[in-house]
Structure formats: C-alpha cells, structure tokens
Design goal:
Helix content: over 70%
Structural class: mainly alpha
Radius of gyration: 20 Å
Shape: globular
Strand content: under 5%
Low-confidence stretches: none
C-alpha cells in the first residue's frame, strides 16, 4: 500500500512526532541531571544543547538541496536512522567530553529528516493542498517536542538520565515506516550546483520569510533549551507552594505550540502573512519583556505569562514556513528549504548558547538578574523578525 493525500499527511505528521522524540532530550534533563552531574555552567550547558542545532546547520544545506536531485524519502530514511542511532549512542556512551559529539551527530541525522521530510511531503501533494498540509506538518513539530520533554524527563527521573536517550531513540522508527509506504518520486533534472543558493538569494520574497524564520528560531530554541531551567528556578523561589513542576510546565509550553501554529497560519491566510506574522512577533517580544520584569515575582503570574508566551512564540512558525514554500521557485524548492533551515537552525544554536551566556553574565541560573538578561535577549532576537519582513515587502507573496 502506498500513501496518498490525507493518509500521507497523517503518516508524515506521526512520523515527524517519532523523529522528534529525541529532539529536546538534552534540554529536558539538562538543569536537573546533566548540569549537576557534569558540573556545567549555563554557558557550557547551552553550548552542549546547541550542538544539535549546530550539527543540523552544517548538514542541512547539502542534504536538503540534494532533494532537488534524488527522491527526498531516501534522505529522510537515512537521516531518521542516524538520528535514532546517535541518540542511542548518547545514552550508552556519552560523558562530559563526548556529549557534544554524539548530540552533533543526532543533529546531523535530524537535518536529513525535517526539511527533507517536508520536501518528500510537498513533492507528493497537489499545489492547492500545500499550505494547510505544510502547517499541519510544521505544527506537529511542537507536539512532538512536547512528547519529547515528557518522555525524557519521566525516564530520567524514574530510571536515570541515560534512559532518557535510550527510550527516545526508538521514535524515528515511525518515520522509517512512513518512508517505506511512500510512492516513488523522480525530481526533474536541474542544472544548478549542489550548494548553489544564488537563485534563492535572488528571490527576495522567500528571503523575507527565511530571515524571519531565523529570528523565530533564535527565540524558540532559546526558550525550549531553558524553559526547564527557568521553571526549576521559579519552583525553588516558591518552595512549599502548590505549583506545577518543570515537567508539567515544559510539556504545556510545547503542546500549546501546535494549535497556536495552526491558528497563526489561518490568521495569515485571512489577514495577510506579513501583517499576521509581524503582530505575533511584536506580541512575543512583549511577553518576553514581561516575563523578564516579573522574573522574581509570583509563580502563578509567571505561569500565566509563560503560557501566553508559549502561544506567541509558536504562532508564526507555520505561516513563515508555508510562506517560504509558496514563495519558492519550484525548481529550487529544495535549495530554498535548505537555506531556510540553515538560517533557522544556525540561529537556534546561537539562541540556546546566547541565553546561557546572558544568564551566566548577569548572575547565573540561581539569580533573578540572570533570567531577566536571558528573557531580555529573547525579546531582542524576535524583534528582528518584523524588520526582515518589512525589508522584503513589495516582492513577497501575500
């Protein structure tokens, strides 16, 4: 049986959730397990967490552009397998010196899974089906990350931190199964060089979404890396209070992203992508500033702000990625997706590490001032998104 239409979209969403099971295993257990065990500073921990995004950034230009030449499902299959194997190796072999190597390899595997997966999906859809299907695929990203937070933290708390990686490593099997049920696709011949992004740089419409996505990823990966650490700080400040723990808060934060991304794309379709994305980004910067201002205050106030932030951080994701795919030249869609991911995950790595540096510089993860600096940096990062869209206005598709 070969997958088509809605069945294909559903299978790709389920497969992506499986591929995402290892995705935040390091950030999920970093503050409560890895930092104390390996005596890491926030800067060192941020660098370790960002190595996943770094590996992704290094590999994605070649792997995603390659989908303009060969069937994307072949790259998707190999990337999913590497991601699972590297995560399993982390669980069995990682120490404070080798952790960065294994997590970088996991990121390289995911580089062969996420955007090649999107290309495998869009190659098999009719053009009119793409916007909402792309948004469902990208929004399932956040659902998968929420499950990753939950499984990794529960496994680490109940069985030890190595089991967080052993258990999540089996998730990519779901995408491997989806690959085996896809019909073949033969991309049309292309004359461009493998890593030639010049046609993409000439497409100013797509570049606006790509640079906006970079600002989004800086903020998103920064908060995903540090949400457990922040709420661990909040819980310590409110010892004895009946407040949700870090597991509950991190899962709520990421699960809210799925409906928020879908709703954000629907608003973009109705009111225009640039207008909707710009308003969402401005609201996200404001939410980060408010969290910074009230970082040492009531846990319940902070929980409310965090849940608002969970919505605003993710509401632009689907609209940015579907805007990029709609603006891309069909002959260079793989290259456009590759640049989209390279910029996005490059700034993801910078966000995870940069927030750690800001926290350490301003007093450390046990201080209010450290978290004020961290959230202030996130607000500054997302503020560049509307500027990118403004720059591309007039040539971008609505």
């Amino acid at each position: 049986m070969k997958l088509h239409g809605k069945a294909l979209v559903a299978a790709m969403c389920v497969g992506q959730i499986g591929n995402l099971l290892p995705h935040v295993a390091v950030p999920a257990i970093m503050a409560q397990h890895l930092m104390p065990e390996w005596h890491l500073s926030a800067t060192e921990a941020g660098m370790m967490a960002s190595s996943f995004a770094f590996g992704y950034m290094v590999a994605v230009p070649v792997l995603t552009t390659l989908t303009d030449r060969i069937d994307a499902r072949r790259i998707l299959f190999a990337g999913s397998a590497l991601s699972g194997l590297a995560t399993l190796a982390f669980g069995f072999l990682a120490d404070d010196l080798s952790a960065v190597i294994w997590w970088t390899l996991a990121g390289i595997g995911f580089a062969g899974a996420y955007m090649p997966g999107l290309k495998a999906l869009t190659d098999r859809l009719e053009p009119g089906d793409s916007s909402r299907s792309v948004t469902l695929y990208t929004s399932s990203f956040s659902f998968g990350v929420g499950i990753s937070f939950l499984v990794a933290q529960l496994a680490a708390d109940l069985l030890g931190w190595r089991y967080a990686f052993v258990m999540t490593a089996f998730g990519p099997i779901l995408m491997i199964a989806a690959c085996l049920m896809m019909a073949p696709h033969h991309p049309p011949p292309t004359q461009s060089r493998l890593t030639d992004f010049s046609p993409v740089f000439r497409n100013r419409a797509a570049l606006g979404y790509i640079f906006g996505y970079g600002a989004h990823c800086f903020e998103l990966y920064g908060i995903r890396t540090w949400i457990v650490g922040f709420w661990t700080f909040v819980a310590a400040q409110n010892a004895g209070s009946a407040i949700p723990g870090p597991i509950a808060v991190s899962v709520m934060f990421t699960i809210l992203a799925m409906p928020s991304s879908i709703l954000g794309n629907e608003l973009a379709i109705r009111f225009g992508r640039h207008r909707a994305i710009g308003l969402v980004m401005a609201g996200s910067a404001l939410a980060a500033v408010l969290i910074a201002l009230f970082a040492g205050q009531s846990a319940w106030l902070l929980l409310g702000l965090i849940l608002v932030y969970a919505f605003t951080v993710n509401a632009d994701s689907g609209a940015l990625t579907s805007g990029m795919t709609l603006s891309a030249d069909p002959n260079f869609r793989g290259a456009t997706m590759a640049l989209h991911s390279t910029v996005g995950f490059g700034l993801s790595a910078l966000g995870a590490w940069g927030v750690g540096v800001a926290i350490d510089t301003a007093g450390g993860p046990a201080s209010t001032s450290g978290w004020v600096a961290g959230f202030g940096l996130l607000a500054l990062g997302i503020a560049f998104g509307p500027l990118a869209l403004l720059w591309s206005r007039g040539r971008a598709k609505p």
